[in-house]
Specification:
The complex is a heterodimer. Chain A is α+β, with helices and mostly antiparallel strands. Chain A has 20 helices and 41 strands. The relative contact order of chain A is 0.06. Chain B is α+β, with helices and mostly antiparallel strands. In chain B, helix 1 runs parallel beside helix 4, helix 2 (25-36) packs antiparallel against helix 4 and helix 5 (113-127) crosses helix 10. In chain B, 46% of the residues are buried. The chains are: A alpha+beta, B alpha+beta. The interface between A and B is large, with 113 and 104 residues. The site of zinc ion has 8 residues of chain B, from loops. Zinc ion is lined by residues 266, 268-269, 273, 281, 283-284, 288 of chain B.
């Protein structure tokens, strides 16, 4: 909302500088986003002038050479190109040196041999209109030499307000003025909607209004004006519109816009002769109905759309935009003025759906009060008579099916002090609410209680009647408290801390674990990436995931590239790798710690129950926190060490340190993932639950992400599952120091196809409870092992909690291991 | 053989001198053989004691043994000394070019600036007695809007352009849905902060369709707006420096009443609005204040949705706040464009702390 300061000050002028005023209302909730300057650069140099003589330029047909009295001792000569310039006119003159709206300084100029000393101005040259066809002619009674600024606001400032949706009243200049009044106590001019011309009754001859559907229209008022002289609006009105950001169009249209800007209530003017049958019917759209709106677009409606129709069909979209069929134009002589109250939610839906947002819809959608409609009619009628020479025909048609009662809200000062943490004196509270237009309905004050010998402040309460223009916002005690607090000054509240009974701060176990894991990766040289949670559906194809496992799709994405929720972190890391490879950083190690998303396996129980019912803590999708890492290329070597390729085992080493940080027991098993190298992929399992995967990228995936021939391997872990396991694994004390462990190395020969994890499993079977660890420390292939065999060296750690183990005892387990190995075709190597 | 003791002394003197002069282990070995070996004079003397007159046997034997022990001790000592010298000499020869670089280190990576900032914020609120909790990003309309006092078709829904997955399911537009989720799960009092990703259908230099927020909620019997001010002042000072002040302006959020916008005094210009060189401060745009968050007292209508869980709006009250983690990170570190945060350019990622 653009609020011209000259206009605002005409309603309430607290005598503050623009900056002070802006700060004050910003603090009270009307945020001034910008202060704009409109009009000429400097009012000096702009004066009223009188054209004494206007003659043809000797060498240019379209130019006139004028002699102009601008109050100076001698008349000045001005060459003027406007066709309408004539002797005797009172005009606006810019003297040489004047600073124009665009900041340029006017100089003396030679025009086809005639020296021109100044300029006779058109409206656009003063920033108060758009008219450049001719010069602006001022009322004759103004004296030449008078500063122009005394007559016209040729310099103005505009407060650009960001008005919150709860304050539709502040979408009118008078509403803003009321807040200024409440904040400063400076006098407030009479409400511009207060006065009225005398309407004659509640009917208009040959005009009827019918609200077919009261669910969409709370009130519809109509007045008719005859003898309308279409034309331009006077400069003062044009200036206000221009400064507020509205283009002047014609006096009738300008009046509707002006009243809206002053009061927040939009109006619509129909050319009554184009309202077929003289009938207005308010109803929802019928199937297939269309209409051409004022912006020359053909609009189709759905059955929710509220329309203002005439006897034959749609004539305007209610509350949003009128139709061309009944548009006022130069030839209009009879105007039907509509001031209606629409149901905000309906207007909001329609305007979103069309989509078509207008100044009117932006106000109606915030729910105006029916009282505001009739007020706007009063102001508009005065202006129609005053500016268009019109007379009102008949009375006011007022369809108001369910008149709304005034709202009453009770304020308990004790409650207010308890919520704010400060007691605001009763007379200050009363003054604030009074200036905002709230009227005391009933009062149980401390004084009246005292007379009843019950001096109890806690029982004090005041009941207020809420003014119509604040009805949508102030409905409860908390709302009244906010009104008092924001005018009193939120920044004047004391600074305290909560008592914090039973408040114990801390991270959840999950967050603590995540920090450990992230730190472990950071310490191993990986940097953290943050990628968007949504990806292109094609990214899933490029990961060769196929359609078997559909991802969650966004119904209204910004682009297809960001239209599905990622079911794994890998694509974001791959995108990051590609981005950095394109910037000469092909070797890199990244991780991400974030959510991934899949459709719920079980549809949420509330599905279909409507948005009004609590889903009782359920979640609409299967969402997990993952930790993913990707390493590409080589880890640099030095002058005496070789670079390390980031292959399966390099990345596995990183995974091992992460899982060590989590403190859970785990194992890897050969597995398949479409996006990974089929021979170099492992599923990561802990307590027989799959917690993630590890592997080298499938070459086709690497190629697709333009990673070249570099080695690239990745892993991804489900931190949610890991967190549960980590909590279960939380270690109590075990005695590892009183009795020594017995260490023994064994070499196991097995066929090549048997994975190390299987060997370990079997070794543990044979080793019994006393075998605490069996780590692989060597792998050997050789002729002596026989074709297709390998030898794995394992270090066994035997330990008993209550005694030192004897060699005999350990030897027994060793033979048991040897026996167990038979089942996988393995044997101990001597 | 009356001169035997004198001869022994002569051997001893000669041998001791030779041992002291031995320069290598080999020389020393030669001397050992020469003076204490089988054919050494001393050894021969000891061996032939029986040939002496009986009265001489005792004194000569004794004297020879004394000399032998003395020489053996000298030899051992010299040997030890020589080993030490040789080790040192060997070490002195075994030099490397200490000016060459060491083995390439594995430098630590970097946490993302957003993560660093988020942890810093979490830790501040933990210190103020808040528990850190998290919730889903794919969220029900109910928790994101309805239960936060945004009925369907409420104009406030226009404030946030929302990504929908279905009619009832959306990407949360703020971390506020966890207010109601948490209150459903836990009776008052409750003191929580909720960090996480949020989504809005918006994209330019200051808006990305995904960003991060941290929500706060405190409900108890007697929490006031003044308490909110105190908590936020503590936060602002911990985050931006002990000199900071906060300013509360009236604002609007459907789920708080009264609602406030909170500014922190500018830390780039020490709240003067201009810099040392007299130019206008770019961070606060000359206003001395920077908007950092929205907050307010929890609206009674919101508590009305969780009255069953013990949140009777006539009995308990409290505040909520929400702030942008990315925004605070940008302010603190002078990052000019939010989009840099999600480009994952390693040159950006490696810039900040650890
Ligand atoms: Zn500053």
């Amino acid at each position: 909302m653009r609020v011209p300061l000259s206009w605002l000050r005409s309603y309430c002028d607290p005598g503050l500088s623009t900056g002070e005023l802006a700060e004050l209302i910003t603090g009270a909730g009307l945020e001034v986003a910008r202060i704009d300057r409109v009009g000429v650069g400097d009012p000096a140099g702009f004066v009223v002038g009188r054209v004494l003589d206007a003659g043809k330029h000797p060498d240019a047909d379209r130019l006139s050479v004028c002699s102009v009295d601008d109050g100076s001792a001698e008349p000045r000569t001005i060459v003027c190109g406007a066709p309408n310039v004539a002797a005797g006119q009172t005009v606006a003159v810019a003297r040489p040196g004047a600073v124009m709206p665009d900041g340029t300084k006017l100089g003396e100029a030679e025009l086809r041999g005639v020296r021109s000393s100044g300029m006779i101005l058109a409206e656009d040259e003063l920033g108060i209109g758009e008219d450049h066809a001719g010069i602006m002619v001022l009322p004759g009674e103004l004296a030449p030499g008078t500063p122009l600024a005394e007559h016209l606001p040729i310099v103005d400032e505009v407060l650009e307000l960001e008005v919150n949706p709860n304050r539709p009243d502040a979408l009118g200049v008078y509403g803003v003025a009321r807040d200024v009044h409440a904040l400063t106590g400076a006098p407030l001019a009479e409400d511009p909607t207060a006065g009225d011309i005398e309407p004659e009754g509640g009917a208009i001859e040959d005009v009827s209004v019918e609200i077919v559907d009261p669910e969409i229209c709370l009130r519809f008022t109509a007045r008719v004006f005859e003898g309308v002289q279409m034309g331009e609006s006077p400069p003062w009105l044009k200036q206000r519109l221009m400064a507020a950001g509205q283009r002047p169009i014609s006096n009738v249209v300008d009046i509707t816009n002006y009243v809206m800007l002053a009061t927040a209530q939009p109006l619509h003017a129909f050319d009554l002769d184009k309202v077929r049958g003289g009938r207005i019917v308010v109803r929802r759209a019928k199937p297939g109905e269309t209409m051409v709106t004022l912006d020359d677009a053909e609009r189709a409606f759905d059955p929710e759309t509220a329309l203002v129709c005439d006897a034959e069909g749609p004539s305007g979209i209610a509350g949003i935009m009128g139709g061309q069929v009944s548009e006022v134009s130069e030839g209009t002589t009879r105007v039907l003025m509509e001031a209606a109250t629409w149901v905000g939610s309906n207007i909001l839906r329609t305007s979103k759906r069309l989509p078509l947002r207008t100044e009117a819809s932006g106000r109606f959608e915030k729910q105006l009060h029916p009282e505001q409609a009739i007020g706007a009619q009063r102001l508009a009628a005065r202006l129609m008579v005053e500016l268009c020479g019109a007379r009102m025909a008949g009375g006011t048609i007022d369809e108001y099916p369910r008149p709304s009662a005034a709202r009453h809200v009770t304020l308990r000062p004790v409650r207010m002090a308890g919520l704010l943490g400060e007691e605001i004196p009763g007379d200050e509270t009363a003054g604030i609410l009074d200036r905002l237009g709230f009227e005391v309905e009933s009062e149980v004050s401390a004084d009246s209680l005292l007379m009843g010998r019950h001096h109890d402040v806690a029982l004090e309460e005041w009941t207020y009647e809420v003014p119509a223009w604040r009805d949508s916002d102030v409905q409860r005690e908390a709302d009244l408290i906010e009104e008092v607090a924001r005018v009193h000054g939120l920044d004047r509240l004391p600074t305290t801390l909560p008592a914090r009974r039973e408040a114990v701060g801390g991270l959840t176990g999950h967050a603590g674990l995540r920090r450990r894991l992230e730190d472990a990766l950071r310490d191993r040289g990986l940097s953290e990436a943050l990628s968007y949670s949504f990806i292109a559906p094609t990214a899933l194809d490029r990961l060769r995931l196929g359609d078997s496992d559909p991802a969650l799709a966004i119904a209204n994405p910004l682009s297809t590239d960001q239209s599905v929720m990622r079911p794994l972190l890998l694509p974001g890391l791959l995108d990051a790798a590609r981005h950095n490879a394109a910037h000469d950083r092909a070797d890199l190690a990244l991780f991400e710690s974030a959510h991934v998303y899949r459709p719920s396996a079980v549809p949420p129980p509330m599905s279909g129950a409507g948005p009004q019912t609590s889903p009782r803590g359920t979640r609409p999708s299967d969402e997990h926190h993952h930790l993913g890492a990707l390493m590409v290329g080589t880890i640099e070597g030095g002058w005496r060490s070789l670079p390390v390729r980031t292959d399966f085992f390099a990345v596995r080493a990183v995974l091992e340190s992460v899982l060590a940080a989590a403190g859970v027991e785990w194992r890897a098993e050969p597995a398949l993932r479409p996006y990974l190298h089929p021979g170099r992929t492992a599923a990561i399992l802990a307590s027989d639950r799959e917690i993630g995967w590890l592997g080298e990228l499938h070459p086709l995936v690497a190629r697709d992400w333009e990673l070249g021939e570099r080695p690239a391997a990745a892993f991804e872990l489900d931190v949610d599952v890991l967190a549960v396991l980590a909590e279960e694994a939380e270690a109590g004390f075990r005695d590892l120091t009183s009795f020594p462990a017995v260490l023994q190395d064994i070499a196991v020969v097995v066929p090549d196809g048997v994975p190390a994890s299987r060997v370990q499993e079997v070794v543990f079977q044979g080793g019994g409870e006393l075998l605490r660890a069996a780590g692989v420390f060597d792998l050997f292939h050789g002729e002596q092992l026989g074709e297709g065999h390998k030898s794995l060296a394992l270090r066994l750690e035997f330990r008993a909690p209550d005694r030192t183990l004897t060699d005999d005892e350990v030897a027994g387990h060793r033979s048991a291991i040897e026996a167990a190995l038979v089942q996988i075709g393995g044997k101990l190597r001597a | 053989m009356a001169d035997v003791p004198a001869r022994l002394e002569g051997i001893r003197a000669e041998a001791e001198a030779a041992i002291a002069n031995a320069g290598t282990a080999a020389e020393l070995e030669e001397l050992r053989v020469l003076y204490t070996g089988r054919r050494a004079e001393l050894t021969q003397t000891l061996r032939s004691i029986g040939e002496l007159a009986p009265d001489q046997r005792g004194p000569v034997g004794k004297a020879a043994n004394v000399v032998k022990q003395a020489l053996e001790a000298k030899l051992a000592k010299r040997s030890e000394a020589l080993e030490g010298y040789e080790l040192e000499r060997g070490l002195a020869e075994d030099t490397v070019d200490v000016t060459l670089p060491g083995d390439p280190p594995r430098p630590a990576g970097h946490l993302h600036l957003v993560t660093q900032t988020r942890r810093e914020m979490e830790d501040i609120f933990v210190g103020l007695g808040f528990k850190v909790v998290e919730g889903p990003e794919v969220e029900f309309d109910y928790y994101n809007f309805t239960a936060l006092n945004h009925p369907p078709d409420h104009p406030a829904r226009m404030l946030q352009d929302t990504f929908y997955l279905s009619e009832e399911v959306l990407l949360r537009t703020h971390t506020s849905p966890m207010q109601v989720r948490s209150m459903e799960a836990q009776e008052p009092p409750i003191y929580i902060v909720v960090p996480g990703r949020v989504y809005r259908r918006d994209s330019d230099a200051t808006h990305t369709p995904m960003f991060h927020q941290l929500e706060g909620l405190a409900i108890d019997e007697d929490i006031t707006l003044a308490d909110l001010r105190g908590v936020l002042l503590s936060f602002a000072r911990a985050m931006f420096g002990p000199e900071r002040e906060v300013r509360l302006r009236s604002g609007y959020f459907p789920f708080t009443e009264p609602s406030v916008e909170v500014d922190v005094s500018c830390f780039a210009c020490e709240a003067r609005g201009y810099l040392a060189d007299g130019s206008r401060c770019g961070l606060c745009k000359g206003t001395a204040w920077i908007e950092i968050l929205g907050a307010g007292m929890v609206d009674p209508n919101v508590l009305g949705f969780v009255t069953d869980s013990g949140y009777d709006p006539e009995r308990v009250q409290g505040f909520a706040f929400g702030m942008g983690i990315d925004r605070i990170a940008m302010l603190k570190h002078g990052v000019p464009d939010l989009r840099l945060m999600f480009e994952n350019d390693i040159r950006f990622l490696e810039q900040f702390g650890s």
